[in-house]
Amino acid sequence: MFENLSDKLDRAFKVLKGQGSITEINVAETMKEIRKALLDADVNYKTAKAFTDDVRQKAIGQNVLTAVSPGQLLTKLMNDELTELMGGTAAELELKGSPTVILIAGLNGAGKTTFTGKLANYLKTQKNKKPLLVADDIYRPAAIDQLQVLGGHIGVPVYANLESKNPVAIALEGIAQAKQNGNNIVIIDTAGRLAIDEAMMQEIERVKAAVNPQEVLFVVDAMTGQDAVNTAKVFNDRLDFTGVVLTKLDGDTRGGAALSIKSVVNKPIKFIGTGEKMEALDVFHPDRMASRILGMGDVVSLVERAQQQFDEKEAAELQKKIRKNKFDFNDFYSQIQQIKKMGNMKDLMGMIPGVGKMMKDVEVSDDAFKSIEAIIQSMTPKEKENPDIINQSRRTRIAKGAGTELQEVNRLMKQFDDMRKMMKQMSNPAAMANMMRRMP
Ligand code: GDP
């Protein structure tokens, strides 16, 4: 995400790279480049101008005799200002009330229903809550089906009333059901329209007045750029929502929506959607997003996501197996599933500093795992448990079963062997100490 903007900002900074100090002249030139980069990224003109004016003011006021180069200084300034532009600190969900009621609003296709499922999944798995979903779109039976399928998938109950044509009543029934069943969060997925529509606005206003929600989250597709910002403005004028959810940030977004929304509606972005899977949801951290835009990577998010997928019991089991040198292809297979659960590979790699830019033109996808998975699936249970018995003739058979070349199987076997050796070494304190001693 945002590769284009990162590239252009990088170029803008180059103007300053060879310079010994920040002067009116070289800052003016850099700011012009930065403003252009922001406008190209579909940032609202007023926002871009106010932003660059602000950075220029601060840059010129800086003491040029500091130990950092002007380029570094400007990067830091930009980082601070971008963070501020996107809201400063992460905005938490207000989870008071019993049950907490969260209303989801937005246009059709923005990703409302998907987000409703993701949020429920997040609150259930990360916050230990017991959510109930309410299907409050009376116009599209398919939307109700979709929510029910998602609910089934993540193990969260869904309230729907196919007989009723009254969204206010359905929402209230859902809340009553939650109280009865001990659900402490109710997430109401409302009806959208293709475009802003008076009847829709009135309907959702009525639902809001009736259920008195703690949170009203406005869901919008980040790929629509300035349109997203304009739609946000209209919804906010009517609904006074509490936060924004930007979806599809995994797509080819230029970043404009993320950068302008806060300054236009003065409401925080609370979540970002980064894929179609239920796990592809991140709490929005303005500081991390700023460093991502500046190409500084986002190690913290990466680490957090890894931790979320990490099952301690499973990890302890795995440790034990590694110590006994019993790590087998079943373990390897389940490791791959864990990595896949973490989300889109390219997106994950983009969070590693320095890698983001490199990966720009490389196609990485979950398909990379497909061939490995096929090979492992073509092994017999005995082979998976005892990789050492996999001789040449077995390899030939496995390759045929997986529809691949013998070479591929050989390569995987070699990688697996190397991995086992390394794991064994790392789990042996004496060997580890020995390795450390040999390090320069
Ligand atoms: P709704 O009409 O607002 O309820 O939108 P949906 O939840 O049905 O989403 C519309 C489409 O966008 C679906 O195909 C979703 O899979 C897709 N979608 C939703 N969120 C994301 C996201 O964060 N990334 C990507 N790539 N697709 C998404």
Can you describe this structure?
By secondary structure, this protein is an alpha/beta fold. It has three domains: about 5-85, SRP54, nucleotide-binding domain (Four Helix Bundle (Hemerythrin (Met), subunit A), Up-down Bundle); about 100-295, Rossmann fold; about 310-440, Signal recognition particle, SRP54 subunit, M-domain (434 Repressor (Amino-terminal Domain), Orthogonal Bundle), CATH 1.10.260.30. It is about 60% helix and about 10% strand. The protein has 21 helices and eight strands. Strands 3-2-4-1-5-6-7-8 form an eight-stranded mixed beta sheet, with helices on both faces. Helix 3 (about 45-60) packs across helix 4 and helix 19 crosses helix 20 (about 405-425). The longest helix has 22 residues, at about 405-425. Mean pLDDT is about 80; it is low at about 435-440.
**Overall mean pLDDT score?**
82
Q: Bound small molecules, which ones?
A: guanosine-5'-diphosphate
The rough form would be described as flat
Specify the CATH homologous superfamily of the largest domain: P-loop containing nucleotide triphosphate hydrolases
How are strands sequenced across the largest beta sheet?
A: 3-2-4-1-5-6-7-8
| Rg on CA atoms, Å | 26 Å
CATH architectural name of the largest domain = 3-Layer(aba) Sandwich
Number of domains: 3
* Secondary structure: number of strands: 8
Level-1 CATH class name of the largest domain: Alpha Beta
Class from secondary-structure proportions? alpha/beta
Distance between the termini: 38 Å
